[in-house]
Amino acid sequence: MTEALHRQLGMTDDEYGAVVEILGRSPNEPELAMYSVMWSEHCSYKSSRAHLGRFGHDQPWVVFGPGENAGVVDLGDGWLAALRIESHNHPSFVEPHQGAATGVGGILRDIFTMGARPIALWDPLRFGPLADPQNRYLFQGVVGGIAGYGNAVGVPTLGGEVEFADRFSKNPLVNVMALGLMREEQLVTKAAAGEGNVAILLGASTGRDGIGGASILASASFEEGDEEKRPSVQVGDPFEEKKLIEACLDLYERGLVVAIQDLGAAGISCATSESAAAGGMGMDVDLDAVHVRELAMTPGEILMSESQERMLAIVEPGDVDEALRVAGKWEVQVSVIGTVTASDQLRVTHGGRVVADIPAASLSENAPLYRRPVARPAHQESLWGDRPSLPGEIDLASALLRLLDDPALGDRSWIYEQYDHMLFLNTIVGPGHNGSLLRIKGTEKGLAVSTDGDSLRCYLDPRRGAERIVYESALNVAVTGSRPYALVDNLNFGNPEKPAVMWQFLETVEGIATACEELDVPVVGGNVSFYNETDGVDIYPAPVVGMLGFCDPMPTEPPRLDRGLAGMAIWLIGPESGEDFAASAFSRIVLDHIGGRPQAPDTDTARAVISHASRLAFEVPVLHDVGAGGLAVALAEICMKSDVGASVDMDEWQPLFDETPHRFIAVAPDEVDLAIDDVPVRRLGTLGGGTMNFGARGDLDLGEAHHIWYHALRRRVS
Amino acid sequence: MHVAVVVFPGTNCEHDVDHALSLLGAEPELVWHRDVDLSGATGVVLPGGFAHGDYLRTGAIARFSPIMKEVERLAAEGAPVLGICNGFQMLCEAGLLPGATVANRDLSFICRHVDLEVTSTKSILTANATIGDILHIPLNSYEGNFVAPESEVAILESEGRVILRYHGENPNGSTNSIAGITNRGGNVAGLMPHPERASEDVLGSIDGRVLLESFVGSLEPVPA
Amino acid sequence: MRYVVSITRKAGLADPEGTTTAAALTNLGYREVRDVHFGRTIHIEVTDGTSTERIDEMCRILLANPVIEDYIVEEV
Amino acid sequence: MRYVVSITRKAGLADPEGTTTAAALTNLGYREVRDVHFGRTIHIEVTDGTSTERIDEMCRILLANPVIEDYIVEEV
Ligand SMILES: Nc1ncnc2c1ncn2[C@@H]1O[C@H](COP(=O)(O)OP(=O)(O)O)[C@@H](O)[C@H]1O
Ligand SMILES: [Mg+2]
User: Fold this and answer.
1) Which one of the ligands is nearest to A416 CA?
2) Per residue, what are the HEC states of A490-509?
3) Three-class SS string for A249-295?
4) Environment class of A370 (CB within 10 Å of its CB; exposed 0-12, middle 13-18, buried 19+)
5) b or e along B114-139 (b: 16 or more beta carbons within 10 Å of the residue's beta carbon)?
6) Does B92 participate in catalysis according to the annotation?
7) pLDDT of B1
8) pTM of the predicted model, to two decimals?
9) Alpha-carbon gap, residue D19 to D22, rounded angstroms
10) CATH code for D2-75?
């Protein structure tokens, strides 16, 4: 007996029943395919939607919060920034190069769909340990795919982050964040308005790519032996996308577009229905008009194809000829495929027959909504009780070298030198420092971005871990002279049908929401990726945040790690405890221990430290947040990048390696006074010489440290 | 129009070149590759990027764009013609410069500052520089590895037409560390690195300026 | 002895290089061109007596990407 | 009808893909590998009656780079 079609498509019997109720009849095949994809976890957020309202976004500078293709914030003087983060985890596991490449393509479309020119990308990544050749293959493929697509499409990749842990073997995480910039006149939305307006499909021809692919794939777990079920891989075409960007921006500039929507999951069916529903309208769509890549495609295939590099523009009838001319100039293919109607229905025809006729809004508005059971994992208490046991004394130099030799702490230039990170001449602080800093030419404004995640800390305590990544990203943009301005988040989790995973999810949402409230930062967008589970093993909960910072004016000489000089004083700004070792790099690498409960953040301190950093950025040559690896690694990074040693006096070793939050290092000429009320400030020592000298605790030769650090990632991938 | 900056589908450095040349007082104008008239131009830049996606071969398809006839005419008339990165590859494909570029030795894209040594000043790109100058300029390419038949390399070397060479480490495996070359007349020049990315202090280096200034200085004044 | 491995992208997958090259040929006036697809070849010289199976194994492990490519091995 | 154009790099010119792949195969234990060279193939579908000369012309003009590449055309 064959399973009912709806079950093969991943729909429950109840969901199928809901479709029958909406239509007042059984759906035909193309209709069922549309509902199954649009109601998948990936498209409908059915397990998470009920909880995402927790995020606030009503600050006055928010133009669009979640809901549009990208969040949009106001930068003053007519400038707007658009930002967005997305995951492409499952496709990148199936085919790392193309999976990552099409992830980049997809997020860029979300940005220029809003009217903005995409100006930068970031790529938070997570893989299994590199000792395994399969993980190396995935890692190299993903980095190559991001480079191949991002560089060719002409959008610089300015940074990202990377973690390696067993839990990401067979389930790597590939997140991409994009930032766009526009003048306010260029802002467009997806809402199709105006009966009689015309729907134009722009870009690549439609083939049998990934039908039901990305979305179904991202809504189910992988099991051994699943290879055959994998839908065909989508191949990215950065050249087509580059042409599309230029054509769309040209169309906006000429005011030829009423609304526009990119084609992603569920292709034409999703774009047409979303655009119509957002405008409270209906749409008639003629599949015969679609330019296709292959002969004999069925209407269902054309409707559901996830071919890349396509956009749907809504244009007034009188502007159609001009719009087609503009697209033609940029050598972009077009077809006129539909008309906006006053009916509320999405009516799709093929060969003169109606192949689908459904209420346009039902695909999104009537999507199922689940409040799945939640329960704290049974092992959580014992994890918390299992605190790292610290040795009394350590060999400081060799411990530091072990940290510097970790591929996630060592030099990441093997990754970012494969990315064009300079295009557009806006990169003032590029990869290899803390947050990235971009200038907006012709203004004194600057935009900073930091992406941060810490899956191990979130595993030990999802709420505290999530709060802390928000504070960390805020500090990372603060050290460029910017204030935290808006946030996007990517919530990567395991199987939501497990109550323990839902607990991790809810704790994370609460953590991010709380920290953002404390910082008065709106959450303007995000993405949820569930079912990151292979053979029953869930990934560590891995929220990733992308913080946008804003400064006006921008510091003329923003701090960088390589601006330290011999003789400058080293200051630690922020609290010291010497006790926060749970989820620290020291515990993971030196003690080979995972357990304990990370320290809770302290909101007052966080706010004070962040605002102090953003002020000091205008006066001090080097500011560096203290993150993974603690003070020791942060100091070593400054020494290595500035090519100068340091003398540091510490009574105990623990404060060099613990990871107490809300701290940064400042390096400045002796006469600069860094003290401030409310924030602890302590002078640690002085830059100079060719070693990192820890007084009675010994020396580490800088050349040796640099060699180990430089090769930590490189030697593991080549 | 003083300098035409040609835009092909897939080109992406046109605005950067425009910005850097404008800072130096030139009057660049972006020109679409289907235009067929460059009669107002006294010089041309083919900027970097991925014209036609770099599909087939870098620069191969772009070379047939309508505007390339005009570029060839200007080159023959002795006007300054500069190809940067992908633009350099187009000049090679069009036969205006010898050789070709292939994948980098380590098969990965390289985006970082490299050191270049000026090895000849007899070109529109290096006229204002001094032989032996070391310039710190970003390289940004996957296929930047310059190759040419041995006889062709010998001619380039003996005629002093290698104008820029990688100094220290050879980043991409280029034959004889060649980073930039010129034609016999010195008016057509190409290089893989991006001088426009090293033209302002805030970008970390201004070593590209001397090259762009040489180029701008070689332009005829705009006819009144 | 020498083998050549010919690798092509699986049918149905997009081939942007092919599409772009086809358009370029048409632009140049070659109206007889209907479709272009790109492939790659790897020419391998091995010590005498190396079996086709051995080359096939190299293809599966390293040379071809089985998710998106098909290949054939021939002795030449 | 269909033609396939096989393009190889001229002997003596750098072939980084070939060199790297040969090293990778040796590292994987394939000690019988002596040399690897990369080539590319272009599969062209044309209207019936198109001559080999016509394809040859496409190669000379666009598909191959005579400075660094050799090619052969075959009907398939
Ligand atoms: N996947 C990546 N892609 C590009 N750049 C990366 C990636 N991972 C790390 N980097 C860069 O390396 C530098 C160090 O990263 P990280 O240690 O995460 O920064 P921080 O600790 O200051 O947040 C940053 O500039 C970051 O942008
Ligand atoms: Mg970080």
Assistant:
1) 1
2) EEECCCCCCHHHHHHHHHHH
3) HHHHHCCCCCEEEECECEHHHHHHHHHHHHCCCEEEEEHHHCCECCC
4) middle
5) bbbbbbbbebbbbbbbeeebebbbbb
6) no
7) 54
8) 0.95
9) 5
10) 3.30.1280.10
Question: Where are the domains positioned within chain D?
Answer: 2-75
The enclosing H or E element of A346 equals strand A345-350
Give per-residue pLDDT as tens, A435-458.
999 999 999 999 999 999 999 999
| Pairwise CA distance, residues A483 & A450, whole Å | 12
Contacts of A363 by beta carbon, 8 Å cutoff, 6+ apart: A34, A35, A38, A39, A269, A270, A273, A274, A277, A346
Task: Calculate the CA dihedral of residues A362, A489, B203, B16 and round it to 10 degrees.
Answer: -10
Specify the residue with its C-alpha closest to ligand 1, atom 23.
Answer: A434
Which residue's CA is the closest to the ligand 1 atom numbered 3?
A160
B196 is known as an active-site residue: yes
Q: Write the CA distances from C74 to A105, A179, A224, C71, D9, integer angstroms.
A: 37, 49, 33, 10, 20
| Residues A122, A449: Cα–Cα separation, whole Å | 9
What are the backbone angles phi and psi of residue A555, rounded to the nearest 5°? -60, 140
Mean pLDDT of A608-617: 96
Let me know if A42 is a catalytic residue. yes
What domains sit in chain B, N to C, each tagged with a CATH number? 2-217 (3.40.50.880)
Using an 8 Å CB-CB cutoff, list chain C residues near B61.
20-21, 24
Question: Of B2, B14, B85, B117, which one is the catalytic site residue?
Answer: B85
Task: Return the structure tokens found at B20.
Answer: 């850097």
Q: How far apart are CA A107 and CA B154, in angstroms?
A: 48
Q: Are strands B3-7 and B43-46 parallel, antiparallel or unpaired?
A: parallel
> Which tokens sit at D61?
């003009």
Closest CA to A395 of A632, A698, A640: A698
How far apart CA D40 and CA C7 sit, in angstroms, is 9
Q: B145 — contact with chain D (CB < 8 Å)?
A: yes
Contact residues on chain C for D63, CB-CB shorter than 8 A:
21
H helices of A491-573, in order, are: 499-519
Residue bearing tokens 């006294």: B42
Q: What is the pLDDT of residue A227?
A: 44
Q: Considering chain A, what is the average pLDDT of its residues?
A: 94
Ligand in nearest proximity to the CA of A414: 1
Q: For A68-132, where are the alpha helices, taking DSSP H only?
A: 89-94, 96-112
> Beta strands B188-191 and C2-9: pairing type?
unpaired
Closest protein CA for atom 22 of ligand 1:
A434
- Contact between A278 and A312 under an 8 Å Cβ cutoff? The reply is no
* Angstrom distance (rounded) from CA A146 to CA A102: 9
Pairing relation of β-strands D33-46 and C33-46?
antiparallel
Could you tell me if the CB of A42 is within 6 A of ligand 1? no
Residue A1 has pLDDT above 70, yes or no: no
Model confidence over D44-56: pLDDT tens digits? 999 999 999 999 9
Angle at the Cα of B160 (from B157 to B163), degrees rounded to 5? 100
Note which residues in 9-68 of chain C have CB less than 8 A from chain A. Answer: 9-10, 12-16, 19-20, 65, 67-68
From chain D, the residues in CB contact with B148 under 8 A are: 67-68
More confident residue, A82 or A235: A82
The ipTM of this complex is 0.93
**Ligand 2 centroid from CA D11, angstroms:** 48
CA distance A34 to A268: 10
Predicted pLDDT at A222: 53
Residues A389 and A410: their CA atoms lie apart, in Å, by 25
pLDDT of residue A3 exceeding 90? no
Domains observed in chain A = 5-363 (3.90.650.10)
Q: Report the distance separating Cα B106 and Cα D17, nearest Å.
A: 9
Mutate to test the pocket of ligand 1, among A157, A412, A415 (most ligand atoms within 8 A of CB): A412
d(CA A693, CA A684): 12
